[in-house]
Amino acid sequence: MKKSIDLTPSYPAYANLGQLYYLEKRYVESASMTEKALQLNDNNYLVWNNLVNAYEWLKEKDKAATARARATELAEKSARLNPQDAWHKPNWRVFMPGRTCARKPWPEFKPPGFIPDDPAILDDVATAFEYLGNRHQSIQYAQRAVQKGYPLEQLANDPEMQSLLLDPSFHPRAK
Predict the structure, then answer these.
(1) Distance (Å, rounded) from C-alpha 60 to C-alpha 83?
(2) Average pLDDT value for residue range 167-174
(3) DSSP at 108
(4) What does the alpha-carbon distance between residue 89 and residue 175 come to, in Å, rounded to a whole number?
């Protein structure tokens, strides 16, 4: 990706390198590359959310709040444009009270009746329940996500999921 950026700087290369650095816990580099990606294209809420997470690990609360507001705006727009898309339904985590300036009350969280066995979607549902303080449901979905192939290391890289990982009820490999 660095070579690609050296040849032709691009949004995908910066965004992917930012995500790679994040997974490697290189949060300063992750934030830097993600910021560069967003200078080229600032319309993807997932990339903004990656920046939020890097800022949270860096304890940059003001920057995280600003990035979170933009992620929320874009995620709401995406959810309106694609209301039946299974990926958008559990991505309420971007909208959770406390994670954004609560512009409107958030209804009781109910995941859609059908949740695909996509590990990333299961992780998003687990994260949404964790943000709302429903540890029992969060653990159920997090365990299911890991069982379906979601990397435990990636779950551990989410700053908001740290206490769940320490919960004695969390057994990621149990069926």
Answers:
(1) 32
(2) 84
(3) P
(4) 25
Which pair of structure tokens corresponds to residue 58? 């860096």
Instruction: Provide the b/e sequence for 87-122 (b: ≥16 CB within 10 Å).
Output: ebbbbbbbbbeebbeeeeeeeebebeeebeebbebb
Helices 11-23 and 27-40, axial angle in degrees (round to 10): 160
pLDDT tens for residues 101-113?
A: 333 334 454 555 5
The string of pLDDT tens digits covering residues 147-160 is: 999 998 888 888 77
Phi, psi of 114, deg, nearest 5: -110, 115
The Cβ of residue 145 has, within 10 Å, a number of other Cβ atoms equal to: 26
Say which CATH architecture domain 1-81 belongs to. Answer: Alpha Horseshoe (1.25)
Q: Which residue has the tokens 């066995």?
A: 117
The backbone torsions φ and ψ at residue 154, rounded to the nearest 5 degrees and listed phi first, read: -70, -40
Sketch the domain layout of the chain as residue ranges.
Answer: 1-81, 84-175
Instruction: From 3, 57, 61, 63, select the one nearest 38 (Cα to Cα).
Output: 63
Which burial class, exposed, middle or buried, applies to 85 when counting CB atoms under 10 A from its CB (0-12, 13-18, 19+)? Answer: exposed
